Amino acid sequence: MAFDRRTFIGTTAATGAAVALAGAASTPASAAAGVQDAKAKGPRTYAFTVMGTTDLHGNVFNWDYFTDKEFDDKAHNDVGLAKISTLVEQVRAEKGRRNTLLIDAGDTIQGTQLSYYYAKVDPITARRGPVHPMAQAMNAIGYDAAALGNHEFNYGIPVLRKFEEQCDFPLLGANALDAKTLKPAFAPYSMHKLRTPCGRDVKVAVLGLTNPGIALWDKANVQGKMTFPGLEEQAAKYVPRLRSMGADVVIVSAHSGSSGTSSYGDQLPYIENAAALVAEQVPGIDAILVGHAHTEIPEYRVKNKATGKDVVLSEPLKWGQRLTLFDFELVWEKGRWSVAKVAAKVLNSNTVAEDAKITRLLSDEHRKVVAYVNQVIGTSTQAMSSAEGPVKDVPIIDLINHVQAETVKAALAGSQWAALPVLSQASCFSRTAAIPAGQVTIRDAAGLYPFENTMEARLLTGAQLKDYLEYSARYFVRTAPGDAVDPAKLTNAEGIPDYNYDAVYGLVYDIDIAQPAGSRISGLSFQGKAVDPAAQFVLAVNNYRASGGGNFPHVPQAKQLWSNSDEIRNTIVQWVKAKGTIDPAQFASVDWRLTRAGVPVFQAVSAQ
Predict the structure, then answer these.
(1) How many whole angstroms separate alpha carbon 551 and alpha carbon 570?
(2) pLDDT digits 0-9 by tens, 200-228
(3) Cα–Cα dist 383/438, whole Å
(4) 261: confidence class by pLDDT, cuts 50, 70, 90
(5) pTM to 2 decimals?
(6) Domain that holds residue 224
(7) Which of 344, 368, 392 is where one domain is finished?
(8) How far, in Å, are 2, 15, 118, 138, 597 from residue 12 at the CA level?
């Protein structure tokens, strides 16, 4: 569906929902807030605040559906829109509601079992289906606009369109284009009017930009339907247009990190984390709400090359753990408003209680999902934990790989590829995942794979697999023989996340962490024999990796032998249901280990 700009002044194309050329409702506290008396000497001024969230990932409640208890981490962060709502109401009470806006930078409808349930189990796309919990919560809180994130496309465009229809605010994506017409498929921007007691009203433009990596990561859902040009390119097109339309302030909501890096290498001509580049290269932007990177940046200033002015960036921490505040000070000069000052900071959601308005609103949905994830689907002969998964070949990761390999073998049965050996890749996606001894629930099995990835089978040679493993082994910090080993400091070299370290199931190999990256894999064998560089193997691989995520070599270009549209975690759940019993003795083995000069860094692990 292409977006016709002519229909946008006041409405979104897809939903017809009113957007903010109308200002927020007035409150008694807002009447005098931030505005110098029009009769006073000197310039007239106006202050307002833009609040921002990002990477909410389906979190409404301060609850972890995989552990079935209140969310907590080492820093004692809290999560969820119910917490954010309390912070938002506090800011509105202090600043005056008419002097505030609330926006989001994307990745909203994927990430928790709550969001999964209303996409797959009781889908919002069904005839007379429910309203998505994230739409209900964000509508109740009063969001003004939200950018599209890459994970918005995980469940397919129909689910995203239904979510868009259910929102009382526009979903923005200036670089999400219809593949045929190359016109915006979603509203590129929204305009918001803030009414002031003096001078003319302030017009605030919010430009939404999403991540070009969608074209790779969700290729199955968007290929031939949508295309995603670079953030800088589209910002350069729209910012002057917004200024010509009378925008006094231009804010970008960008689902793109600030680092200038990409996880997909040179497969696309666009940068994944381009927010700082947009600030530097495109004049006319006052502030950027940053998303996607899951980092906390209270305030980051980037000087625009053309104007020399600072652009203020801020990224609140993921899942509703933080709320960004952009505080603007404007001055009326020469018949127009101009920005005199911008500052940013973040508020911590663990300082407040959940808003009862939001928890009451979605209590039924929460109870349904808790009951769903606690369904018993099988038993396990012993407990398994992922705690040591980043540094040891543990049975719980073998379980993921075993399910994937079995699934691919069954899919290729009877084909010309049926005789080839099937290997599998997996990462330690969560260091807290666990399978208990005894009864196993949906949440136990699904917790092994918190992402919505699907599975593919790709054809690789022995030489290519060696390259793949060498690239993966960059994850470990180089540690000389004899040096003390602290497992907590041994991983994530160069900032590589856990999900970008792959273990390959079906091969045996050592990773010598005393060697430099690129020269660490030794003893690579298959069924007791050294791997022939020319031999062919089938690799069961997730769609993120197959599409170039993490920039691993060879796989994106490798021949695709099979693909599946079902989430891997659902495949795991169905496998447990079918087997009835999980017995690590049937699939667990220590096939890779960390060494230094041939000496193992750790002793072999048990099934525990």
Answers:
(1) 26
(2) 899 999 999 999 999 988 888 999 999 99
(3) 8
(4) confident
(5) 0.82
(6) 44-368
(7) 368
(8) 12, 6, 24, 17, 62
